[in-house]
Amino acid sequence: MAAKKPAERPNASKEELLKYYRDMLLIRRFEEKAGQLYGMGLIGGFCHLYIGQEAVVVGLEAAAKDGDKRLTSYRDHGHMLACGMDAKGVMAELTGRIGGYSKGKGGSMHMFSKEKHFYGGHGIVGAQVPLGAGLAFADKYKGNDNVTFTYFGDGAANQGQVYETYNMAELWDLPVIFVIENNQYAMGTSVNLLSQSVASVTSVEFTQ
Ligand SMILES: Cc1ncc(C[n+]2csc(CCOP(=O)(O)OP(=O)(O)O)c2C)c(N)n1
Ligand SMILES: [Mg+2]
Question: Nearest C-alpha to atom 13 of ligand 1 is from which residue?
Answer without folding.
Answer: 186
